[in-house]
Amino acid sequence: MIQQENPQVIARTSLHRELVDRLQLLIIGGELAPGIKVPERDLCAQFGVSRTPLREALKVLASDGLVRLEPNRGAWVTTVTVSEVNEVFPVLGALDAISGELACEHITDAEIDEIRALHSQMIESYERRDLDSYFSINQKIHHAILLAARNDTLTTSCQALSLRMQRARYLANMTEGRWYDAVQEHEKILTFVAERNGKKLAKTLRDHMESKRVSVVRWLQNQDAASEE
Amino acid sequence: MIQQENPQVIARTSLHRELVDRLQLLIIGGELAPGIKVPERDLCAQFGVSRTPLREALKVLASDGLVRLEPNRGAWVTTVTVSEVNEVFPVLGALDAISGELACEHITDAEIDEIRALHSQMIESYERRDLDSYFSINQKIHHAILLAARNDTLTTSCQALSLRMQRARYLANMTEGRWYDAVQEHEKILTFVAERNGKKLAKTLRDHMESKRVSVVRWLQNQDAASEE
DNA sequence: TGACTTAATTATGAATTCAAAATTACGTTG
DNA sequence: CAACGTAATTTTGAATTCATAATTAAGTCA
User: Fold this and answer.
1) What ipTM, to 2 d.p.?
2) Which candidate, A173, A172, A143, places its Cα nearest to that of A158?
3) Domain residue spans in chain A?
4) Mutate which of B70, B81, B92, B153 to test chain A, going by most A C-beta atoms within 10 A?
5) For residue B91, which of B220, B202, B206 has the smallest C-alpha distance?
6) d(Cα B140, Cα B177) in Å, to the nearest integer?
7) How far is CA B46 from CA B54, B167, B187, in A?
8) Residues pairing with B37 in the sheet
9) What three-state secondary structure class fits A208?
10) How far is CA A174 from CA A40, A94, A155, A215, in A?
11) A82-219 has which fold?
12) Kindly report the CA angle at A184 between A113 and A126, in degrees rounded to 5?
């Protein structure tokens, strides 16, 4: 038998592209914590690659705002600041709104059913107070709407900005009250998707994002206050 | 005296960053025409750099959609397709709309005056039928509105998408009728900016972008038809 | 002892090198 | 002479090397 330790790896993609994906996961997963210096040497060892492709990946991540490059000093994982949140969420809101409008123009009955199913699962997660599951399904719903919008550019733009907001589980700041409200908002989202009511869906998605902004900012400020002790 | 043949080059920024900017200019200026293979070796010679920083820059440009990388085959300057235009313009429209809303919240009287002045200059360019000048001032107006929105994330997102639409002077498809309409739209834009009427400005900017989309698509299809002969 | 200088070490940025893939050129065969 | 297969060349992707900047450590002097 021919030696082939990872059969799935046809190595169809280049190293730097693979590294971009892996590093993104490390960053949004928190393994590469916000604020720390990117341990270039360690990562090279960990992935078994040389510095060249790793550094190429860092350049791409920097242009996406996930790391910050300082000339002759290296790369740092960016932190999520209040002002950044106040910038990004309104933009995401506008993009979500247009995605809702476009989705209503193109979505199929099957896709609506799928979103309905996801919604039910999400409600179950909510009732179990299973935050991880809730977030995961929540993302799937938003992604399903994006897919229905039939606009790859929009999808890419949204995901790039979402990534920046996902660093280090910042979204995990759900008070009981906020969580309840979010679920109510999602009920409206489902309704308007099912009705293919583009305008109302757009407005609901944008309001939803604004609520999220407020809630994330509040949490961040609590964090800041706590860390000052 | 110390030898210093290019005094302007303080080289404060890294090579790859500089190269990203230079290559962007070459691409949107048409010197690197859509569809051609990126002449890596030539560009290295032209800029007097090695392949490493140039290739880093290409990775960044690829993530911005200005070039397309094919594993083991190299990089190509992307072409503007009808479907891409149909994707990007609606997204740009949504971003422009939100930028109008935010601008009305933050813009100062001085900034309004500046936009008014730019608008007058643009009208003069229109009356002289000076397309280059018209486009240049047009861009400045949109940029001024973006600046007034006080949202760097929004600015970055808009500019990235705008760049993709600027390849090879595609915007230079102004019929007499379309040009007239565009100027009328800009009159409304100025009015609503001056009134700080966010909602109406948002709608006007979005409609403006939609008109642009239609016009660009029409022109692209004429191009395609012409090239098939 | 503490602040400042200077030397040693480390990390970064970019050029160079090298192996592998793709392309081109060439020769062979039907 | 056309199509296929093989060899030579070129190009790419990535590792390595090297010069320089930044950081740390050591030493000196008040």
Assistant:
1) 0.89
2) A143
3) 15-77, 82-219
4) B153
5) B206
6) 23
7) 11, 21, 44
8) B76
9) helix
10) 34, 23, 26, 8
11) Four Helix Bundle (Hemerythrin (Met), subunit A) (1.20.120)
12) 75
A chain contacts of residue B54, beta-carbon cutoff 8 Å: none
CA distance B34 to B54: 19
**C-beta separation of B141 from B188 below 8 A:** no
Give the Cα separation of B119 and A206 in Å (integer). 32
Mind listing the pLDDT tens digit for each residue in B10-55?
345 899 999 999 999 999 999 999 999 999 999 999 999 999 999 9
In 10 A of CB A108, how many CB atoms?
9
H/E segment holding residue B55:
helix B51-63
| DSSP, res A108 | -
Q: How far apart are CA B108 and CA B115, in angstroms?
A: 11
B30-64 CB burial, b ≥16 within 10 A, e <16: eebebeeebeeeebbeebebeeebbbbbbbbbbbb
67-106 in chain B: CB under 8 A from chain A:
69, 71, 84, 87-88, 90-91, 93-95, 97-98, 102
> Could you tell me if B64 lies within 8 Å of chain A, comparing CB atoms?
yes
What's the CA gap between B145 and B112, in Å, rounded?
Answer: 9
Chosen CATH of B15-77 out of 3.10.180.10, 1.25.10.10, 3.40.50.300, 1.10.10.10 = 1.10.10.10
Asked whether residue A128's C-beta has any atom of DNA/RNA strand D within 7 A, the reply is no
Whole-angstrom distance, CA of residue A202 vs CA of residue A187: 14
Q: What is the tens place of the pLDDT at every residue in B44-82?
A: 999 999 999 999 999 999 999 999 999 999 999 999 999
Closest by CA position to A135, among listed A188, A171, A88: A171
- Cα–Cα nearest to B58, from B81, B39, B31, B45: B39
Kindly report the nearest CA distance between residue B125 and chain A, in angstroms: 33
